[in-house]
Amino acid sequence: MSQDIATPQSRRFVLIAAILASSMGFIDGSVISIAIPAIRANLGATLADAQWISNGYLLFLSALILLGGAAGDRFGLRTTFGLGIAVFVLASMVCAFAPSPAILVIARAVQGAGAAFMVPGSLAIIAKAYPREERGQAIGIWAAASSLTTIAGPIIGGFVLTAFGDWSWRLVFAINLPLGAAALALLWFRVRADRPEAGRRLDIVGAALATLSLLLIAYGLTGDGSESTPGLLHMVSFVGAGLVLGGIFLVWEARAADPMLPLRLFSIRAFSGANALTFALYFALGGVMFFLPMTMIGGWGVTPANVSLALLPMGVLLTVLSSFSGKWADRVGPAPLIALGSLIVAAAFALLGVTAPLHDLWFAVMPSIALLGLGMGLVVSPLSTAVMTSVADGDTGVASGVNNAVARVAGLVAVALLGLVVASVFERSLGSAAELPIFFGLPADGLTAAEEAARLGATDAAFATIAYITAALSLLSAVIAWLTLERKHMPARA
User: Fold this and answer.
1) Rounded CA separation 490/198 (Å)
2) Would you give the DSSP letter of residue 445?
3) Which residues, other chains included, contact 241 with Cβ-Cβ below 8 Å and sequence gap of 6+?
4) The Major facilitator superfamily (MFS) profile domain covers which part of the protein (predicted)?
5) Confidence band of 70 (pLDDT split at 50, 70, 90)
């Protein structure tokens, strides 16, 4: 790969720009679930609106991220990366000033499209700017900074929301303006433009089919913004149409000269297994991390600051364990670590379900989150190893991109499908109080003691159902890992 994008003196500016851009994506991804209750209260958004605020972003990010990676090669990495940052920042400003849920959802969708070109570029531009012998250190600095922002983002966001009230969710998006402006300035003034690969073709048709397919499936499961669950005819019609388009997408990818999703890779057992368990595990993780903060803040009345502190152990343990688990995977293979980690994650989710009626943040939720961090810390690095080592060296980049896209799609489908479960269980659990203006994840004023008890009980039942479903999916991930991924036999000790 040509190293004409940066001189030795300007490489640090490339690294800083990549860190700033990644920080925007990580902060938005980690803080939005804590901010959702404030957004709902401030804008009067329904549960379905909240799902679309998350899924509008995930939809375009997951559908376009493979196209975004290829566009960097086709049009030049600096140009594509910079364009992704600009779109992301402009959409963030619209998010910050959005007067209604509909405007916020549209802006989040545009933000996701920008992220699809920004996220792949952050690592790729580092790899292109640094020679191979210095690349590991640079990526290590980027990874450490990314971990720091992932950990610190929710804490800062939680305290801001607690201190300034519901309107301050807008600051979560406004912070992207200075970060993005600084990244763009560094790219424009300190980094030379790289040479594009003129012969590279983009799979525009595949990207359009994937986007429409996911959009129809999400719309079928979520509905148009009403609090009640979508009707059966609505679900069957739109989900069915989405699945048909998904089939057409697969046929196109099988025949396209330059597919964004090379189906030939799925003939490799380890690659298929790694992506299957990724979908199941990240479906579970995405569902719990979307509905848990809403349950605690809107359902139990916990402050966003305390919720962010309760979620802190996951980020810390994940960061600390990832470097060790990668080395362990080299010794014993990825299968044992991923299987063990998935079992621990399943236990964490089950514990969250069992203890939900206690409403105990520090002695029930926080230990469960620590257990979740322990499990994911054993999974993340070995999973990357499993994906990378399952394919030929020339396919590692696209294999990593596919696995990243699968994880995003899993989160998208989880929020859409589990939202249907939450709304159904919540309404059924309310019993006679279902006629009152009581909604999942929102406090209600003027209720009698019996009605408030019914609201809390329905909240707990809805979240516990999510916890048990995701625990079962995590168990499935462990089974898939054990059956499909590599296990190395340890040499006997003398």
Assistant:
1) 48
2) S
3) 216, 220
4) 14-489
5) confident
State the greatest distance between any 2 C-alpha atoms of the chain, in Å, as a whole number: 73
pLDDT beyond 90 at 77: no
Q: Tell me the DSSP string of 41-76.
A: HHHT--HHHHHHHHHHHHHHHHHHHHHHHHHHHHH-
Identity of the amino acid at 398: V
Mean per-residue pLDDT, 235-245 = 96
Burial of 178: CB neighbours in 10 Å, binned 0-12, 13-18, 19+: exposed
- pLDDT band per the 50, 70, 90 thresholds, residue 102: very high
Rounded Cα distance, 226 and 46, in Å: 7
Q: Are 39 and 50 in contact (CB under 8 A)?
A: yes
pLDDT top residue among 41 and 128: 41
Number of neighbours of residue 202 by Cβ within 10 angstroms: 17
The distance in angstroms from the start CA to the end CA of the chain is 46
pLDDT at position 3 is 46
| Joined tokens for residue 356 | 């939900």
Choose among 402, 376, 390, 355: nearest CA to 477. 376
| Residue closest to 279 by CA, chosen among 6, 91, 480, 133 | 480
Residue 54 has pLDDT above 90, yes or no: yes
- pTM listed for this prediction: 0.92
Q: Is the pLDDT of residue 435 over 50?
A: yes
Rounded to 5 degrees, what are φ and ψ at 44?
A: 65, 35
Q: At 357, which amino acid appears?
A: P
Cα separation, 420 vs 230, in Å, equals: 8
Residue 484 has pLDDT above 90, yes or no: yes
Give the helix/strand (H/E) hosting 90.
helix 77-96
**How confident is the model over 153-158, as a mean pLDDT?**
92
The residue type found at 430 is: L
pLDDT digits (tens, 9 = 90+) for 78-90: 899 999 999 999 9
Question: Residue 2 has which token pair?
Answer: 């040509």
* CA nearest to 311, candidates 331, 296, 324: 296
CA distance 364 to 358: 8
Q: How many CB atoms lie within 10 A of CB 232?
A: 8
Structure tokens at 396: 């590692």
Contacts of 345 (CB under 8 A, 6+ apart): 281, 284, 285, 371, 372, 375, 376, 379, 474, 477
Pick from 21, 3, 6, 32: nearest CA to 120? 21
